[in-house]
Amino acid sequence: MIEAALLGAGGRGMFAYGEYARKRPNEIRFVAVAEPDEERRTRFAEQHGIPEERRFETWERLLAHPKLCRALLVCTQDNDHYEPTMRALEQGYDILLEKPMSTDPSEALAIARRAEELGRVLTVCHPMRYSPYFQEAKRIVDGGEIGRVMTVQWTENVGYWHQAHSFVRGNWRNAGQSSPMILQKSCHDMDMLQWLIGTECEAVSSFGSLSYFHEGNAPAGSAARCTDGCAVERTCPFSAIKWYYNEKTDFVQRAASISNKLEDRWEAIRTGPYGRCVYRCDNDVVDHQVVNLRFEGDVTVSFTMTGFTEENARTFKIMGTEGQIRGNEERNELEVKRFGGARRMYYPEQVEGGHNGADTMLMSEFVKQLERGAPASLTSGIVSAKSHLIAFAAEASRRSGRTIDMKEYIESL
Q1: Same domain, 23 and 62
Q2: 310 in the same domain as 194
Q3: Angle (deg, nearest 10), helices 132-142 and 187-197
Q4: Could you tell me if 178 and 171 are in contact, meaning their C-beta atoms sit under 8 angstroms apart?
Q5: Separation CA 405–CA 294 (nearest Å)
Q6: What are the angstrom distances between the C-alpha of 134 and each of 193, 244, 251, 334?
Q7: Do 189 and 219 have their domain in common?
Q8: CB 110: neighbour CB atoms within 10 A?
Q9: For the chain, which ranges sit under pLDDT 70?
Q10: What pLDDT shows up at residue 355?
Q11: What is the DSSP string of 309-376?
Q12: Do β-strands 333-338 and 299-306 pair in parallel, antiparallel, or remain unpaired?
């Protein structure tokens, strides 16, 4: 059994990885936690039987102690990944690191290189590689069912409610406080694309902006908060009263672990960040963005990330020299059509857990990797850093209006 410590008992640490340990105590056990929020720290510690002396307010205090266990899960906020990860690597921890690795491209590379130099396990949380759904897509591509991949259309449907929750009102609304949206949300997709295509990305161009979620689009009669007598609250699709108080109570846990008591929920949306009008927040990340990619072998990719969708799942079309694959993650459906030939439908195995079971499979592989002392079977820190650099390059292109040569970009770091 692997003993582990957790830095950051937020949504991912608490529910994705903490729940895995609770359901599989024979595989992994948390023996220490660092979390500045006392309620979350206490809750996680009590769930996992962590003694008082191993409950820390900050990651600095936890890492000030001699090595406490085998593994460390870094689930702090985006801007707080680099320093604790580097310090933990030096102390001998094997690490599961939430994405993004860092909000700085040079730091992402430095983390990956240092882990290799020290011979430490570094698994970055790109769980989609571990999803049975995308595993099946990879098998189809590598098996040659559609011939040689030439073109990919890939869409990250963020979902209108997810955009409002996470990227307008929530923790990832402001690039200076977290990271650019293309990095935070879509380094997953950059990783999936380089994995499925199987060659290096050569060039990147991108366009995108924050076009809708700002005060210029606030409806007449709207207020600073949904609870402040907003004249359009009842018909607004982004109403905080609708999402956090009345209908969508599953969002209560996601929104800063608000209590299930109605009076507490009301107070949270009356005074907290999730009760603000979506047109009057301090958000600055894009609400839609496109990225064009060229990979080795003349493979071209058109990637779209948008917050203006009803669905909240990836859709894609992979086009090869002998056929095509259409994918809809939400329906767990893969359609393969060979040119002038058969049409096949695939419905991959579904596994319990977040991201359609991908979180479960990621944790399972991380534990197995530590137990067998072998390199990761699906990815590595260096590979993850490369996909991060594609996202960084896309943001550089969006801001500059230039096409980014990836070789030159990496050398400039």
Answers
A1: yes
A2: yes
A3: 30
A4: yes
A5: 10
A6: 11, 32, 27, 10
A7: no
A8: 18
A9: 247-259, 374-377
A10: 82
A11: -S--SEEEEEEESSEEEEEETTTTEEEEEETTS-EEEE-----SSTTTTHHHHHHHHHHHHHHHT---
A12: unpaired
